[in-house]
Structures are given as structure tokens and as C-alpha cells.
Design brief:
The complex is a heterodimer. In chain A, helix 5 links the parallel strand 7 and strand 8. Chain A starts with a strand and ends with a strand. By secondary structure, chain A is α+β, with helices and mostly antiparallel strands. In chain A, helix 2 packs across helix 3, helix 2 packs parallel to helix 4 and helix 3 packs across helix 4. Chain A has 2 domains: about 220 residues, P-loop containing nucleotide triphosphate hydrolases (Rossmann fold, 3-Layer(aba) Sandwich), CATH 3.40.50.300; about 120 residues, OB fold (Dihydrolipoamide Acetyltransferase, E2P), CATH 2.40.50. Chain A has 8 helices and 20 strands. By secondary structure, chain B is mostly helical. Chain B has one domain: MetI-like (MetI-like fold, Orthogonal Bundle), CATH 1.10.3720. Chain B is globular and about 70 Å long. At the A-B interface, strand 6 and helix 2 of A face helix 7 and helix 8 of B. Chain A: Its EC number is 7.6.2.11. Chain A: It catalyses: ATP + H2O + polyamine-[polyamine-binding protein]Side 1 = ADP + phosphate + polyamineSide 2 + [polyamine-binding protein]Side 1. Chain A: One of its GO terms (cellular component) is ATP-binding cassette (ABC) transporter complex.
């Protein structure tokens, strides 16, 4: 059963569409990421699920029930806010117990639940502290415990790790994922951080300009991006624009403006203008002439413009026919390319992906 | 910090304290001095306090001032807090205009406001009296309350109230369990301002006071005009001590609307 259903939801602020005919289905128990740039609509969508934003059109369902007429406090959701929004005047125990307290649950039951949740987030013994007396990472875990306290049907996370520094963020990613799995709660989270989306999500919806660009498992989107935006927002991509000039042997030939040609296993009608994306790590860099020039391998030549050493890999910026191409080279051998050296870049045709511009 | 600049900033602090507190301290000391003409040497005496106890006019005026200031505090703080909440949490037509109208009243000279009020109250039949003084004080202190409580609400943001809603709290629960306790320091600070504005107010009270009744500042002013007696020092000393105790207490409690 779908835990959260979004169908044809639209929201306008004046003439600007914050959400433009958005549809998606989040499965039971799924960790679902909304990824996109700021202004992409992801936060508006999350707030629409929570009930802070009322869609102008479309329907949102939680556990199969339409929620448009259900106020926020009856939607049975748990939400973790970007700044955590812990109540500064209440203790940790009172913060976590707040949801049960407003439901008038017995004191003993609340205390027991608070104890369980603090154990879950590994902060037992902190009951009497005030949020201010805790570190950012601890506050974040308290906020998570509070969001889980009422056993909500869906957990909503707004930039859950955004306020933490890099090292803590990496630690918390694993912990968050672990807790989500243990609890088995359907989770929708918003992030602009592609790494966070990749590591946490079972599936990702990439949003841009109020629309969904692509929905899928992180790996599927990474390997087969459907749009240029999806390709460049999740990972890095080189784009080649050209005209389809024929098909044969299971590959499509694309002629680039500078006369070079590349091949893809994707299909497109002859004469069509297409955009092809190639990931920088799929490119193999080498001296010109060293490659076996088989017709089914892509080979283009270019001049090295810049080199950035990153320890385990080297990034080259290569000028291939007045077009900058980025190449990641694993730091495996002593082979290095100097500035202005002309090198050959090769890759398999199935790594050339035709995307919508 | 080097020695010269350290000495300079010490001097600066000393000058501030000197000009701020020396006149007050001199006045307080003189209230205990026997001489009516401030003659030294100092001779301790409570004569002016004894005279003050028999000065019904001054005591009556002080009572008027305290009652008006307290009632003003309750009314202005309540109305102002509700207004600030409304501005901070709701969208409605004309909100910007109304918010903008708050500010000019702060910069308008009290003399002008007082004159306008006197004319308006006379023309509208409200007339002069303690009731119109109270009306004037509420009108004066309301913008301060709205601005102070509003600043507190703005700095709090809405996310804690939103969090309460997602946790199942209804509007009433959210207000009493989250909003009210969080804005309490702002309300306390605003109430202090409302009290002080009313208690200090001279111009408007002077214009609106009917013959025979007055507030403390008005009474002190007319007493000075007739001829200064150290009774004024005595009542001033009492007020200064009382308000200092009050202020220090509140400042400790609320840090004037800042973070606790």
C-alpha cells in the first residue's frame, strides 16, 4: 500500500508555480528523498504533506486517506525541522513527551515512551537537560526522537543533517538510516545535498522548477538520468550536443559540431538534435594513438587545460573542440598529463546517455 | 589593552556614572538632611519624610500615578500583546499600513500629542480627568508593547509552533504550552515599559488633569513652581528605591526579552 500519495498537486504563489502538477507515490517503509536546488519545490511539497501548505490543485493521501480536509495536528505525521525547533523552555523529556502529553496520555506511559526513545537515539540519562545544553548532533537526535514519539504514519525530515558539520553529518547519515530501518517508518526527506540523497534514500525524486525531473533508485538515476538537469544535479556530467547521423551495429552515431562523432546505444531518429551525457569517471584518458580504434568505442581528442589533484583521483579539464570536458582519473599509475598535452578520451557507447535538454 | 586606552575607558565609564548617578545620589542624601536650604554640614533627620506623610496632595498624586500606571500596564500589555500576535502570525489586508502607523507615534513629540488629545477629548465630550489621562497613557504606551513583544515573536519564528502542531497540539494547546511561555520575557519587558511610560508621563497628564487632581509628576512640577521643599527629595528617594528594586528583579528574571 502506498504510504503517501501525491497526485497532480499544484501550488502557485502569485503567478509562480512552486509545485507544477507533481505526482509521486511513496511506498510503505520507504526512505524517500526529495532532491533539488532551493526553489525547486521540494520544501513546498514536504510542507504540503505536513499541512502547512494548502495545494491549489491535486490530492495528497496519507495511508490511503485524502488529507486535504484534515488539519495538521490530526494528520498523524512526525516532522523534524531544519533548525530542529526544539522547545527551549522544556526539558529533553518534556520535548519528547510533548506529543503524548497533548494527547492526555498517562504520565507513566509518557515516561516509558521517552525512556525507549532516548535509548533508541542513544541519549539515555539526558532527560532533565534543556536543549541549549546539548550539542548540535544531540539536539538533532532529540528532534528525531520527538518526531517519532507519537508513532506517526509518516516521518517528514526537512534538511535533516543540514545544520551539522561535515564529519558529524556523515556519522548521522548512517545512524538516521539505521533508526529508520529499525523503526520501519515511511520517511520523506528534503535535501539539496546529492551525497545525502544518494546514501539515505531508497528512492529519490529530483525536483526542479516545481516539477519532478525523475523518480527512481539512486543508482538508476545516476546511471540513466533522463534529463540534463537530473544528470548534472546528481553527480557531474559532460554534455555533448549534436545531430544523429545514422544507426547501425546497435549503436547510434552522433555528429558533434566540430566534426568528431560519438556513439550511444540509445536510439534516436536520424537528423534529430540530441543532448548526450557522459559521466567523467566513465571516460578513459590516455595518450593519442594508444587506443585500439574500434568503431564501436567513443574516442575524442582534446587538449589538457587544467589539472586538480584530489589525492585518490585527479580531475582534468580538457578542451575537446572548444568544449570543456571533465575527466576523473583514478590515481592508480604514475601516468600524468601535462598542460596543453593532447590526449584521447575513450568510453563505451552504453555510457553515452541521451537526455532531454 | 594598553595602559593609556585602559585609563581612558575607565575615565569614560566614570564620567557616565558620575553624570547619571551623582545628581540622584545628592538628591537622596539631601532628603535626609535637616536643612531646608541644603546647608552643610549634613545632619541626619527624617523631618522631610514626616512632613511628606502629612502632605495629602503629594500622597494622593502618588496614589493616582501608581493606580493609573498599573491599570495602564494591564490594558496596554494585554492589547499590545494581542496586536503583536496578530501582526506576527496572521496575514490580512492593511497589515502593512497598520504596522507602519505604529512608528510615527513613537517619534511624535508628547507636547503635540498632548495638545491634540486635550483638544480631541474636550471636543468629543470625554473631558479631562483620571479616565482621560489613562486613555492617553494607553494610547502612548501601546506601540511600545507591540514593538517589544513583536520583536520577541519575530526572533522566535514560527517553527516551534509548527512543530507543536505536527505533534498533535491544537491551537489552544500550542498557544499555552509553546507560544505564551516563550514570549513571556518579552511581555514582562513590555509591561515594564508600559508602567514606566505612564508613571513618568508629565506632558499628557498635565494637559488632561482636571483642577484639584493630579499625578505625581504634575504635582511635583507645581510644587517646584511654588517653592521647592525637600519633601520632593523624600518622595523621589522612595520612588527611586522602589523602582530600582523592581527593575533589578525583573531584569534578572527576564533579561529584557532576550534569551534566558
Amino acid at each position: 500500500m502506498s504510504a503517501v500519495g501525491i497526485s497532480n498537486v499544484a501550488k502557485y504563489y502569485g503567478k509562480v508555480a512552486a509545485l507544477d502538477d507533481v505526482s509521486m507515490t511513496v511506498q510503505d517503509g520507504e526512505f524517500f528523498g526529495l532532491l533539488g536546488p532551493s526553489g525547486g519545490g521540494k520544501t513546498t511539497l514536504l510542507r504540503a504533506i505536513a499541512g502547512f501548505v494548502e495545494p491549489d490543485r491535486g490530492e495528497i493521501t496519507i495511508a490511503g486517506k485524502a488529507v486535504s480536509n484534515i488539519p495538521i495536528n490530526k494528520r498523524d505525521i512526525g516532522m523534524m525541522f531544519q533548525n530542529y525547533a526544539l522547545f527551549p523552555h522544556l526539558t529533553v523529556a518534556e520535548n519528547i513527551g510533548f506529543g503524548l502529553s497533548v494527547r492526555h496520555r498517562p504520565k507513566a506511559e509518557i515516561a516509558e515512551r521517552v525512556r525507549q526513545l532516548l535509548e533508541l537515539v542513544r541519549l539515555s540519562g539526558f532527560e532533565g537537560r534543556k536543549p541549549k545544553q546539548m550539542s548540535g548532533g544531540q539536539q538533532q537526535r532529540i528532534a528525531l526522537a520527538r518526531a517519532l514519539s507519537t508513532n506517526p504514519k509518516v516521518l517528514l525530515l526537512d534538511e535533516p543533517l543540514g545544520a551539522l558539520d561535515k564529519k558529524l553529518r556523515e556519522e548521522m547519515q548512517f545512524e538516521l538510516k539505521q533508526i529508520q530501518r529499525d523503526v520501519g517508518i515511511t520517511t520523506v526527506f528534503v535535501t539539496h545535498d546529492q551525497e545525502e540523497a544518494l546514501t539515505l534514500s531508497d528512492r529519490i525524486a529530483i525536483m526542479n522548477g516545481g516539477r519532478v525531473e525523475q523518480i527512481g533508485a539512486p543508482r538508476d538515476i545516476y546511471e540513466r538520468p533522463r534529463t540534463a538537469f537530473a544528470a548534472s544535479f546528481l553527480g557531474t556530467a559532460n554534455f555533448f550536443e549534436g545531430v544523429v547521423s545514422g544507426r547501425g551495429d546497435g549503436v547510434t552515431r552522433i555528429e558533434l559540431p566540430d566534426g568528431q562523432a560519438i556513439f550511444t546505444t540509445d536510439e534516436a531518429p536520424a537528423g534529430a538534435r540530441v543532448t548526450a551525457a557522459v559521466r567523467p569517471e566513465k571516460l578513459l584518458a590516455g595518450p593519442v594513438g594508444a587506443q585500439g580504434q574500434e568503431g564501436r568505442t567513443n574516442t575524442i581528442q582534446g587538449r589538457v587545460m587544467a589539472e586538480v589533484f584530489a589525492g585518490n583521483s585527479v580531475t582534468y579539464k580538457v578542451d575537446a573542440g572548444n568544449k570543456p570536458v571533465t575527466v576523473f582519473v583514478q590515481n592508480r599509475t604514475d601516468e600524468r598529463f601535462g598542460p596543453d598535452q593532447t590526449i584521447a578520451l575513450t568510453w563505451a557507447p552504453y555510457h553515452t546517455i541521451l537526455v532531454a535538454a | 589593552m594598553n595602559k593609556a586606552s585602559s585609563a581612558l575607558s575607565g575615565l569614560y565609564l566614570l564620567l557616565i556614572l558620575f553624570f547619571l548617578y551623582i545628581p540622584i545620589i545628592v538628591m537622596m542624601i539631601m532628603s535626609f538632611n535637616r536643612s531646608e536650604l541644603y546647608l552643610l554640614p549634613f545632619e541626619f533627620d527624617l523631618v522631610w519624610y514626616q512632613q511628606l506623610a502629612q502632605n495629602d496632595q503629594l500622597i494622593g498624586a502618588a496614589r493616582n500615578s501608581i493606580v493609573i500606571a498599573l491599570v495602564n500596564t494591564v490594558i496596554a500589555t494585554t492589547l499590545g500583546t494581542l496586536t503583536a500576535l496578530c501582526f506576527a502570525r496572521y496575514e490580512f489586508r492593511g497589515k502593512r499600513v497598520l504596522q507602519g502607523m505604529l512608528v510615527p507615534t513613537l517619534t511624535m513629540p508628547w507636547l503635540i500629542t498632548g495638545t491634540a488629545m486635550l483638544m480631541f477629548f474636550f471636543w468629543s465630550g470625554i473631558g479631562r480627568g483620571l479616565h482621560s489621562i489613562l486613555l492617553g497613557h494607553v494610547a502612548l504606551s501601546l506601540p511600545y508593547v507591540v514593538i517589544i513583544v513583536g520583536a520577541r515573536l519575530r526572533s522566535l519564528g514560527v517553527s516551534m509552533e509548527e512543530a507543536a502542531a505536527t505533534l498533535g497540539a491544537n491551537g489552544w494547546q500550542t498557544f499555552w504550552r509553546v507560544t505564551a511561555p516563550l514570549m513571556a520575557p518579552g511581555i514582562v519587558a513590555a509591561a515594564l515599559f508600559a508602567f514606566a511610560i505612564s508613571f513618568d508621563q508629565f506632558v499628557i497628564s498635565y494637559f488632561l488633569a482636571p483642577v484639584g487632581t493630579s499625578t505625581l509628576p504634575v504635582q511635583i512640577y507645581s510644587a517646584i513652581r511654588k517653592g521647592f521643599t525637600p519633601e520632593i527629595n523624600a518622595i523621589s528617594t522612595i520612588i527611586i528605591l522602589a523602582s530600582m528594586v523592581l527593575m533589578i528583579g525583573f531584569a534578572r528574571f527576564s533579561k529584557f526579552g532576550g534569551e534566558r
